[in-house]
Write a structure and sequence with these properties.
The chain has helices at residues 3-15, 21-29, 39-56, 64-90, 96-104, 113-125, 128-139, 144-151, 155-173. It is an all-alpha fold. The longest helix is centred in the middle third of the chain and has 27 residues, at 64-90.
């Protein structure tokens, strides 16, 4: 079997059934959502790694579940490596309020002056814990459960913080925050 046929077989397997879902499952697990600036690039990287992992898998492909598990891990490691490399290059190593302030006022991330002014007003009224909640939910796309684990507080506490944030920023946003 030649190399071109091997690649075709691997791509056919990926597109067969719901095997391509492995790539999207890895992205979800890594908290990479469709609005991430490199989402489509990471989908393509994941597909390419899927094909590479399929080809590297031992010839005995009878146990599809085990093979898909192997492919999932391979895709996860490659995408995680890419994300870490891009983060090392583009993100300064700062903590707490400084990190959040820098993320909000990064010219490329938020070029709109009006948005910067609103975020400046929001940051001014929030404490550090509330800023961490905003960062986790909206900038990192994490769920309340994930933040609860990361910050080592209960989900109930996070909901209390969220309600405090709503109360604090209501004068800035007006009545648009009503549920």
């Amino acid at each position: 079997m030649d190399n071109k046929t091997d690649y075709q077989t691997a791509f056919d397997f990926m597109l067969e059934g719901d095997h391509e879902v492995v790539v999207f499952g890895v992205l979800k697990r890594l908290n990479v959502r469709p609005w991430h600036e490199h989402y489509q690039d990471l989908v393509q990287e994941g597909r390419l790694e899927f094909v590479d992992a399929y080809q590297k898998y031992p010839d005995q492909r009878d146990d599809e579940k085990q093979m898909l598990s192997y492919i999932y891990q391979s895709v996860k490691w490659r995408l995680l490596d890419k994300l870490r490399r891009s983060t090392r290059v583009s993100t300064p190593i700062l903590r707490g309020v400084e990190t959040l302030t820098n993320l909000f006022f990064d010219d490329e991330a938020l070029s709109d002056v009006e948005t910067n002014l609103i975020f400046n007003n929001v940051l001014a009224v929030l404490n550090e814990k509330e800023q961490l909640l905003i960062r986790g939910l909206y900038l990192e796309g994490k769920t309340m459960s994930q933040l609860s684990e990361d910050l080592k507080v209960s989900r109930k506490t996070l909901y209390v913080w969220r309600n405090q944030i709503k109360t604090k920023i209501k004068p800035i946003w007006g009545n648009t925050l009503d549920d």
